[in-house]
Design a protein that fits this description.
nine-stranded antiparallel beta sheet; 422 residues; single chain; 13 helices; alpha+beta; 19 strands; five-stranded antiparallel beta sheet
């Protein structure tokens, strides 16, 4: 009665190397062999369950008091006492409660539910075509015209599949209410990278909004939400039977309130600001996140080596000193349990700044965009296509990155770009 997944390699996606310390490639995907026998199953967040188990779970759901779940989670997951004690994070909630927490609407965590817009990626299908757009879900309240609201609030996005993986491992969310704009990009890697990025984008805005210091100390709230996401996903994925030791996701999240911008950054996505000068009305791209969190950075390498990790190769990867695993090309990530024992951390780089009148936009790009397009080309496409709209311009940027990488390498990572006009 056990479900066995036969894998040719333990890793997949853009940040893992499966063939040992001497593998020169950066984005070699690994294909899994097919199971010997097909079994009828139900898929949800990537997990496989027996039909009988699914029916039992549905029956439990009908009997469960949703109000009781909500209050239990708010008092069990969020208090400062738990958030400040890492040894208690792994016992924050039972698996059934974590699942229901994810299924609650984000509006439940807003102080004012009368007007908001919430955009997020739908769970990715098992197989997708190259350049296929991410399926998007939009929830809102108190908005008559969605398109006009998005344009008025400067919300633009593109998220589409490359050809390096069988499914789009990128995910994102955008949340706008009366005072704040939240945006996040998550770039998964490994066999279950799609599930990690999906779960992270589902949980992150809810946990952040429900943090007791979200309104008064957003920097602390961002830091502790990253830590809480890490432990919550470990708990959830372990109990659902994922092979999770070698899968994970990056995470880059920004919070904009008025002219104040706060960013929490883990991994190799990037945040840029489009800024003009007194002498030139055309914007320059100013990189805000200064690190791609690669293990060859001296401070990152030192931490990893103190934890019995080894950094070697080109590009640099993280290995256990006693094996050829995990081969992770990041020094910070969400998930990646095997790497977390040897110095890879989920602690975010925090950037806080005040936007000025010369700042035109803020953008978050996954590395499928920025590593395949030069900054000046990015700006050139934006300016050239300004009359056709920024949504058209972002799609053109993704197409350029795809073709550029395909011609140079014969492959292309997934691509996500969020842009907030100021």
């Amino acid at each position: 009665d056990q479900y066995i997944v036969y894998l040719e390699g333990l890793m997949g996606g853009g940040n893992y190397c499966c063939s040992g310390k001497n593998d020169p490639g950066e984005d070699d995907p690994q294909e899994s062999t097919k199971p010997k026998k097909k079994t009828k199953h139900k898929s949800r967040f990537g997990r496989i369950e027996k039909i009988e188990e699914a029916k039992e779970e549905e029956e439990k759901d009908q009997e469960y008091n949703e109000t009781q779940v909500s209050f239990e989670l708010e008092t069990e997951i969020v208090p400062e006492k738990i958030l400040s004690e890492s040894d208690k994070l792994s016992t924050i909630a039972k698996i059934e409660e974590i699942e229901r927490y994810m299924e609650r609407d984000v509006a439940d965590f807003l102080s004012n539910q009368s007007a908001y817009l919430y955009i997020y990626g739908e769970e990715t299908k098992l197989l997708q075509d190259s350049m296929e757009k991410k399926a998007i879900i939009i929830n809102y309240e108190g908005i008559d015209n969605i398109e006009a609201f998005m344009q008025g609030n400067g919300i633009h996005y593109v998220c589409q599949k490359g050809i390096s993986n069988p499914q789009n491992q990128d995910d994102f969310f955008v949340l706008v209410d009366e005072t704040t704009t939240l945006m996040g990009v998550f770039d998964g890697h490994g066999v279950f990278g799609t599930q990690y990025s999906c779960l992270a984008q589902t949980l992150f805005p809810k946990l952040l909004l429900n943090h007791p210091k979200y309104k008064t100390d957003v920097v602390t709230a961002i830091k502790e939400t990253f830590a809480l996401i890490q432990k919550t996903l470990f708990s959830f994925i372990k109990k659902k039977g994922f092979i999770n030791l070698y899968s994970g996701t990056t995470g880059t999240v920004l919070v904009k309130r008025g002219s104040n911008l706060h960013i929490g950054h883990v991994g190799d996505s990037r945040v840029y600001i489009g800024r003009t000068t007194e002498e030139n009305d055309s914007p320059n791209l100013i990189r805000v996140t200064l690190s791609d969190h690669t293990p060859d950075i001296e401070s990152e390498k030192e931490r990893i080596e103190k934890c019995d990790g080894v950094v070697t190769g080109n590009p640099a990867r993280v290995y256990n000193s006693k094996s050829d695993l995990p081969g992770l090309a990041l020094s910070r990530s969400i998930g990646d349990e095997a790497a977390s024992y040897i110095g890879v951390i989920c602690e975010p780089e925090i950037i806080s700044l005040e936007l000025t009148k010369t700042d035109l936009f803020v953008t978050i790009c996954s590395n499928g965009i920025w590593k395949n397009i030069q900054e000046e080309i990015f700006l050139e496409i934006l300016i050239k296509n300004k009359g056709k709209g920024l949504d058209f311009a972002l799609n053109t940027i993704a197409e350029y990155a795809f073709k550029n990488s395909l011609e140079a390498l014969g492959k292309q990572d997934d691509m996500t770009c969020l842009l907030l006009s100021i």
